[in-house]
Write a structure and sequence with these properties.
The protein is built from no helices and 25 strands. By secondary structure, the chain is mainly beta. A hairpin with a 6-residue loop joins strand 12 and strand 13 (145-150). It is globular and about 40 Å long. The protein has a single domain, classed as TolB, C-terminal domain (Neuraminidase), CATH 2.120.10.30. It has a 5-stranded mixed beta sheet with strand order 1-2-25-24-23, with no helix packed on it.
């Protein structure tokens, strides 16, 4: 499963398929690179963060045309975009007010709206499946827990409460998957918001896993370590059938699923800078 072959590059993207070796040079020369891709739930548009213009902004890549456009442009850091379920809005976090807060904007970069407003760090937003709430990691009570913000009413709900870090939530109809250090090492946990029930899906991971749900809510892509590098794995909803997607000496991180559930995009440093790589996957 997931055998990797490079075919060509465009718009800061490496395409993984089954045809030939890398046949074109990389276009962008980002100092750090292109990170945290997230695939639109309704199209082949991929939003991502990049410092290709000197500071971190949010960009949009159209997969079909290879066109890349900037959605934000300021001297602050704009990071970790997240699509709304209808593909019309993006949430992200930004330091434009002096500390990291959650912001919303339309998918074309217009109608910017600040969602959180406090003196602590709020980051890594993810949308609820019905598009009414945004969950995120926050230090509002002196420790890094997960919260959910109602986009219309402004109501805030605390979702977790442990002394360890709860990080990088991902929301689907199957629940909120997130990374946690509560067992002394990173693990993946799944929270059912309605009941507050939590299960430990995986434990004893060496890196923050950054889980990402498949479109059908049956699989999670995540990051873990292997012989000094970070790689992308898949695991099913029951914590079984763990499969390696990338296994090499490079650093691979921030996986995201295509709407068809047959492709993954993730960041990789295999070209000396972080770039976005597309890879086909075949699920059992």
């Amino acid at each position: 499963m997931g055998k990797l072959h490079f075919t060509w590059a465009r718009g800061g993207l490496l395409i993984a398929g089954a045809l030939a070796a890398l046949a074109a040079p990389l276009a962008a020369q980002a100092p750090r690179g292109d990170m945290a891709p997230v695939w639109s739930p309704i199209s082949d548009d991929i939003a991502f963060e990049s410092d290709r213009d000197g500071d971190s902004d949010i960009y949009l890549l159209n997969f079909a045309s290879g066109k890349v456009e900037s959605l934000t442009d300021n001297s602050a850091s704009d990071l970790a975009p997240s699509w709304s379920p209808d593909g019309r809005h993006l949430a992200f976090y930004s330091s434009r007010d002096g500390n990291f807060e959650i912001y919303l904007m339309k998918a074309n970069g217009l109608e910017l709206r600040r969602l959180t407003d406090n003196t602590v760090i709020d980051w890594y937003p993810t949308w609820s499946p019905d598009g009414t709430r945004v969950a995120f990691e926050s230090w509002q009570d002196g420790q890094p827990d997960l919260y959910a913000f109602d986009v219309q009413s402004g109501a805030l709900e605390r979702l977790t409460q442990t002394p360890q870090r709860e990080a990088h939530p991902a929301w689907s109809a199957s629940g909120i998957a997130f990374g946690s250090l509560r067992a002394g090492q990173w693990g993946i946990y799944v929270l059912t918001p309605q009941s507050g029930e939590e299960i430990a899906l995986l434990t004893d991971l060496d890196l923050e896993p950054k889980p990402a749900w498949s479109p059908d809510g049956q699989w999670i892509a995540y990051t873990t370590a292997w012989r000094g590098s970070s790689d992308i794995h898949l695991v099913d909803l029951n914590g079984q059938n763990d499969q390696i997607i990338s296994q090499d000496s490079y650093q691979d991180d921030f996986a995201t699923w295509a709407p068809d559930g047959k492709r993954l995009a993730y960041s990789s440093d295999r070209q000396g800078r972080w770039r976005i790589l597309i890879q086909e996957v075949t699920l059992p």
